Amino acid sequence: MISLKASNYKFLSKRGVALFCLTVFLCIIAILMLSSASSYSAEKNFNDSLYFVKKQLIAMGLGLICMIVLSYTNSKLVKKVTIPFLILSFILLVIIFIPGVGVESFGAKRWINLGFTTIQPSELSKFALIIFSAKFMENRDMNKIRNCIPILMVGGLMCVLLLLEPNMSVTILSAALMIIMLYIGGANSKLFIAMVIPIVIAFILLIVTEPYRLQRLMAFINPWANPRGEGYQLIQSYYALGSGGWFGVGLFNSRQKFLFLPFAESDFIFSIVGEELGFIGALFIISIYASITVLGISISKRCENRFDATLAFGISNVFGLQTLLNIAVVSGAIPPTGIPLPLMSYGGSSLVCFLSSLGILLSVDRRSKVNIFSVIEEKREGKKKYGRLRFN
Amino acid sequence: MISKTYFKKRLLSTCLVVAFFLLVVVGKLIYVQLIDGATLQAKALDQWTRDIPLKAERGTIFDVNGDVLAKTATSYTLYVRPVNVKDKDRLAEVVSEATAIPKDKLMEKLSKKGQSEITLCKKLTKESMNQIIQSGVEGVYFSKDISRYYPYGNLGAALLGFCNVDTLGQTGIELYYDEYLKGIDGEQLTETDIVGRDLNDKIYYLPSIDGFNVNLSIDKTIQSFAESAVSSAYHKFNAKSASCLIMNMQTGGVTALAQTPGFDLNNVDRSDLTKLFELSKLSAISNVFETGSVFKIITIAAALEENVVSENENFYCAGSRVVDGKKIKCWKSLGHGSQTFAEGVENSCNCVFMDLALRVGLEKMYTYYEKFGLTKKTGIDFLGESSGLLIPMEIAKNVDLARMGFGQAIAVTPIELVTTICAIINGGIYRIPHFLECITDYNGTLVYKNVTDKGERIVSEKTSETVRRLLLGVVDNGSGRLAGVSGYKIGGKTGTAQKYKEGSIDRGKYISSFIGYSTYDNPKYVIYFYVDEPEGYLYYGSQVAAPMVGEIFKNIFIYENEKPSETDIEFVPFKMPDFTGLSYEQAKKKCYDMGIYLEVEGEGKVASQFPYPLTECNSKTVVFLKLE
Question: N or C: which end of chain B has fewer CB within 10 A?
C-alpha cells in the first residue's frame, strides 16, 4: 500500500485533517458567538436580529468552498498567479482612493463598494505579500542583501498605501509579516540590525517632536483617565472580560452586548467570548487558534521544498499573529487598534481570505504528505548529521 | 541558500517570540478576568441598570408624652405623559374621583398641546395614589415628595433644629440624631441598554428602611410655658435674648429649653445664614459666662461639705472685704451688718461667700469644681457644647478665690451650672444631662433606651438637705420672693452678673438670672431663667428673672396637678407706699414693718422706686429703690 503514486498525494495528512476539522469547529463556535454578540445591535439597527449572522453565513459558505477548492491546487498554479495576484492587490489598494468607489467609515477608507457588498483589499494584500515573498525567495540566496531589496520595496509600498487609508494595525501587521518572511527566508542578520536602527530613530523622533502621540498611544495603560473618550472602548472591554470571571455568564447572557461595548460583533467579539464563556472558555478558544497555528507550522516543517515551507509558515504566521494582536488589544495588553479576530469577527473579506489561505495551507499539506521513504531518507540524513545541506 | 536545519532554527526562534507574547496576553487576560474581575463587574453593574431611589421616611421626634414635635409628611405628585394616555376622559374621571378635583379642570390640563409631560396634581395622599393605580389607567406617573413638618413651628426651634431639602438634619436634635432618624434609602433597579431602554420587565426592589423615632425628655407643655416666659421677658425688658432651662433633677433629662429670639421651623429663612446660625445656637449649651450670685449655691455646697460653716454662725458685712490687700465690695455698698449664715444667703451677701470660699481654700475649691463637673463638658447629646473657664489653679490667688465664691472670675455654661445644682439639690447625685429618652423603630419597638444612670454622689444627703432649706429661705424671705407661688414651697437663688467687654466691665450690661427648684418636699424640677442685657434700670435677677420662674412653676403645678399645701398663708394685699425722699434707714424700717423685700442701689435718699406708689401689691413684692 505504500507507494509513490500521485493519487496518494490527494489525501491530507493527520495534521491536515485535524487542521480542517478544527477550522470547521471554530467556524461553528464563531457563528454562535456572532449571533449572541450581534443580535441586539442588529435588532436595533436593522430590525433583524440575525442580520449579521446571515451575511456572515453567506461569506462562510463561500469561504469554506474556497478552502476546499484551493486545497487541491498545486504549487505550479500558485506560483503562476503570484505576480497577477500581487498586482491585483495593489490595484485594489489604489482604487480605494478613487472617490465613489472607496467607502469611508470612522474616518478611514478601507472598503471598496462592489454594489452588492463591500470588500476590504487589505485582507487580500497580506496574503499577496506572503505568496510573493515565498516565490521570490525560492531560488535566491537571501543572504545577499541585494536579493532582499525587492521584497522590502514591495512590502514597503504596500505599507505606505495601507498607512494612507489609514489602517495602522494592518500596516504594522504587514510590516511584521514582511520581516518574518525575510527572516524565515534566510535573510542576512545584518539586514535586521540595519532595519532596527531607522525604526528606533523614527520612534525617538516621534516622541521628541510630537509627545502627545505617545501619550495617546499609551493612554491604554490607564483608560480610566479618560473614561468617556479614548478609554471608553477599553473600559467596556474590561467590563465584559471582568464580568466573565472564571466560567462566564453563560452563552447568550452577555450584558455588554447591549450596545455598551462598541464593535462587539467585529473587532471586540473576543470580549463577549470572555464575558459569556469566562476565562476557561477564552482559554479554550485561544487553544483552538494556537492548535491551528501549530498544525500549520508543523506542516511547514515537513515540506519537501522551500516554496511550500515558506508559504505554509507565512500563512500560519499571519493567522496566529493576527489572533494574538486582536486578543492583545481586547485585553488591553497593547494600545487599542482595529484588527479583526480571524474567522470570528464579523466581516466577509477577512473570513473568505482566511479560509482560502487555510485552503492553500491544506494544499501544501497534500503535497508534502510524509511517506515511508521520506521518513527513511530523513533518518539517514539525521545519521549523517545535518550540515549546511541545501534545502530544496 | 538556506539549509533545512537553519530554516527550522529560524522557525523555532520566531515561534518562541510569538509564544512569549501569547504568554503575556494570557497573563493580561488572567489579570483582567480573574484578579480584577469582581471589581470590574461591580463597576459595570452601575451602567447596566437604571436606579430610581426609594427615599426612606425620616423618623418622628416625640416629646416625653408621645406628642409629635417633628414629623415627615409624604405626598405624591401625579404626572401624565400624554403620548401614553389612551383614554383622556376616563383618566380625568378616575383622578377626579380620587382627588375630588373637578373633572373639567383636569380635562383642561390634559388637553394642553405640545407637552411631553403634564403635572396633573400635587400633594396627593397615598390612598388617592393607590386608588388611581388600581384603576389601571395608563400614562400616569407618580413622584414622592417628602417634607419635614413641625406641628408647633416656633416651639424649641433651636433645640429641635431643621432639615435641608433632602430631609437630612442640619442643626439641633435633627442633626445630632440624624443617623437614627434618616433611615436607609432603597433603590428600584431596572436593566437597560446603553441608552436606557428597558431590556425586560424585571424590576429589582431594594426596599428602603424607614428611620427610627426619637423620643425626647422634653415635655411639650412645659416647653411652651418656658417659651411664653422667655418671650414675655424678652419683650418686657427689651433684652438681647432670654433663655430658660428646665431639668428633671431625678433623671437628668432636660424637660424644656427655650430661648428667644427664635424662628419658625416650618419656614426657615435661609437668606441670612449668619443670622440663622446664630439663632440655631443653643446659648444654654454653648455660651460660657459668669453667672453671678446663682453660683453661690456651689460655694454653699462646698463649704457645707468641708464643714467650715454652721447654719447659725454669725457673719458681719461692712460693705466690703479686703483680700490680699485688695478691697472687694459687697453688692450693697452700705453693708448688711451682722447676719446669720442663713440670712447671709437670703441677702446674697458677697462678704459671706468670700469668707466661705477662703475657708474652703484654693486647692480644695478647685477639687470641688472638678468634682461638680464645672471644668469639663457635661456630655449632653447636643453638638457645640462648651466647657467652663477657670483661672488655672497655679496662677489663681486668694483674691480670685474670694470672687469665685460669689460667682465672678469663673465662667460656666448654663447646662453645667444647672446639672451641678440639680445634683446638689436632688440629694447629691450627679447625672449626665440628656435630651434623649429612647429610640424606637417604625413599628414602635424599642431600639435604645436612655437608662437613668445611677449617677455619682458629689455631695452628702445632709448638705443637699441644708442647701434646699437655705434656698427656700431666699424665696420666702429674700431676693427670690417674686419666684414664690402661693401654697408651694419653692427654693432658689437670684443672680445679676456684670458683662465684660474686652476684659473690662461693660457698664450697664447684665445677665439677670434666677435658678429655682420645686418643691421642697418633692424636688423634681430645676428652672434656670436668664435674661441677657435687660434694658432700663430694672436689671436685678430678683426683678427680671424670678417672677418668670414663679410663673412657670405656677403653670407646672396646675399642669402636673400638684396640690397646694393647706398650711400656707395667703399674702396680704396692700397698696405700695411712696418711698421717695426717705433715707435708706427710714425706707428699710418701713419695708421691714410691712414685710416687703427691698433692693437698693446707690447711696443717699430715695430718688425713684419700682413698683410705683399706689400699685396693688402683696407681701411677696420686692421693691427696688434708687438712692441718690
Answer: C
Is the torsion defined by CA of A340, A346, A347, A351 positive or negative? positive
Multiple choice CATH, B571-628, 3.40.50.1220, 3.30.10.20, 3.30.70.20, 3.40.50.11260: 3.30.10.20
Q: What is the pLDDT of residues B65-123, one digit of tens each?
A: 999 999 888 778 888 877 777 788 888 888 888 888 888 888 888 887 777 778 888 77
Q: How far is CA A64 from the centre of its chain?
A: 16
A286 in B contact zone (CB under 8 Å): yes
Mutation target among B16, B33, B41, B200 for the A interface, most CBs of A within 10 A: B33
pLDDT (tens digit per residue) in A212-245: 667 767 778 888 888 887 888 899 999 999 999 9
- Quick check: B33 and A389 CB within 8 A? no
Which B residues 30-89 touch A at CB under 8 Å?
30, 32-34, 36-41, 43-44, 47-48
Q: Say which of A242, A286, A317 has its CB closest to residue B37.
A: A242
Pick the CATH number of B52-216 from 3.40.50.970, 3.90.1310.10, 3.30.565.10, 3.40.50.300: 3.90.1310.10
Q: State the Rg of chain B over Cα.
A: 35
The predicted model gives B389-397 an average pLDDT of 90
For the cut 60, the answer to whether the pLDDT of residue A316 exceeds it is yes
Chain A, residues 348-377, CB within 8 A of chain B, namely none
Mutate to test the interface with B, among A233, A241, A339, A386 (most CBs of B within 10 A): A241
Residue ranges per domain, chain B?
A: 4-35, 52-216, 220-568, 571-628
What is residue A1's predicted lDDT score, i.e. its pLDDT?
34
**Residue B619, pLDDT score:** 67
Q: How close, in Å, is residue B50 to chain A by CA atoms?
A: 14
Asked if A313 has any chain B CB less than 8 Å from its own CB, the reply is: yes
Over residues B407-422, the mean pLDDT reads: 93
Q: Which residues of A touch B15 (CB under 8 A)?
A: 297
Cell of residue B514, nine digits = 434666677
**Domain residue ranges of chain A, discontinuous segments joined by +:** 9-369
- Topology (CATH level 3) of domain B220-568: Beta-lactamase (3.40.710)
Distance in Å, alpha carbon of A41 to nearest chain B alpha carbon: 10
Mean pLDDT of chain B: 86
Burial class (CB in 10 A: 0-12, 13-18, 19+), A271: buried
Predicted local distance difference test score (pLDDT) of residue A391: 46
For B244, the grid coordinates are 430658660
Contacts 24+ apart (CB under 8 A), B399-402: B399/B323, B399/B324, B399/B326, B399/B328, B401/B357, B401/B358, B401/B361, B401/B362, B401/B365, B402/B321, B402/B323, B402/B328, B402/B354, B402/B357, B402/B358
pLDDT digits (tens, 9 = 90+) for A146-155: 888 899 999 9
Flag if A180 and B4 touch (Cβ within 8 Å). Answer: no
pLDDT band at B570 (very low <50, low <70, confident <90, very high): low
Do A259 and B194 count as a contact with CB atoms less than 8 A apart?
yes
Q: Do B44 and A301 touch (CB under 8 A)?
A: no
- Structure confidence by residue, pLDDT tens digits, A248-289: 999 998 888 888 898 999 899 999 999 999 999 999 999 999
pLDDT at A371 over 50: no
DSSP string for A244-282: HTTT-S-TT--STTTTTSTTTTTTTHHHHHHHHHHHHHH
Please check the confidence at residue B599 and state whether its pLDDT lies above 80: no
Q: From chain A, pick out residues whose CB is under 8 angstroms from the CB of B41.
A: 239, 242-243, 245
For residue B192, give the chain A residue with the closest CA. Answer: A258
* Mean pLDDT to the nearest integer, A81-92: 93
Q: Phi and psi at residue B337, in whole multiples of 5°?
A: 70, -150
User: What's the start-to-end Cα distance of chain A, in Å?
Assistant: 27
